[in-house]
Design brief:
Keywords: Hypusine, Initiation factor, Protein biosynthesis. Belongs to the eIF-5A family. Residues 85-141 form the Translation initiation factor 5A C-terminal domain. This protein is mostly beta strands. The chain folds into two domains: 19-84, SH3 type barrels, CATH 2.30.30; 92-140, Beta Barrel (OB fold (Dihydrolipoamide Acetyltransferase, E2P)), CATH 2.40.50.140. It contains one helix and nine strands. It has one helix at residues 121-140; strands at 19-23, 32-35, 38-47, 57-64, 70-76, 80-84, 92-96, 101-105, 111-116. The strands form three sheets. It has a four-stranded antiparallel sheet, with no helix packed on it. Strands 7-8-9 form a three-stranded antiparallel sheet. The protein is elongated, with a radius of gyration of 22 Å. The chain starts with 18 loop residues before the first strand and ends with a helix.
């Protein structure tokens, strides 16, 4: 072996996938699926019977978890679909600063202070309504 230094450029990520495969026939309502490269929550599933050409088909209707748009897909029930890894974390609102940053309480008791409210008026009104409802619900309990 020589004493030369070798440098390798990494062309890939750490190998963690954003999705995992799951057979289409096992995906149920309120689950998640990737439709047209978008992560969706499944709101409707229907399965057709096996026809003369073999496979039963699953018809999925999903709502994009980021945009709220309705998407549909039809997949043979024995084929694999991509299912996104979805983690939902709920925080309790502590404060909103004048510069638009929110202070949130984490489950471990710490605070998360690096989230800024959106500047888009439509999105901001939706977030504001959610914050008001959350605050009201906390006060009522």
């Amino acid at each position: 072996m020589s004493d030369e230094e070798h440098h390798f450029e990494s062309k890939a990520d750490a190998g963690a996938s954003k999705t995992y495969p799951q057979q289409a026939g096992t995906i149920r309502k309120n689950g998640h699926i990737v439709i047209k490269n978008r992560p969706c929550k499944v709101v409707e599933v229907s399965t057709s019977k096996t026809g003369k050409h073999g496979h039963a088909k699953c018809h999925f209707v999903g709502i994009d978890i980021f945009t709220g748009k309705k998407l549909e897909d039809i997949v043979p029930s024995s084929h694999n679909c991509d299912v996104p890894h979805v983690n939902r974390t709920d925080y309790q609102l502590i404060d909103i600063s004048e510069d638009g940053f929110v202070s949130l309480l984490t489950e471990s008791g710490g605070t998360k202070d690096d989230l800024k409210l959106p500047t888009d008026e439509t999105l901001l009104s939706q977030v504001s309504l959610s914050i008001i409802w959350t605050t009201f619900a906390c006060c009522v309990e």
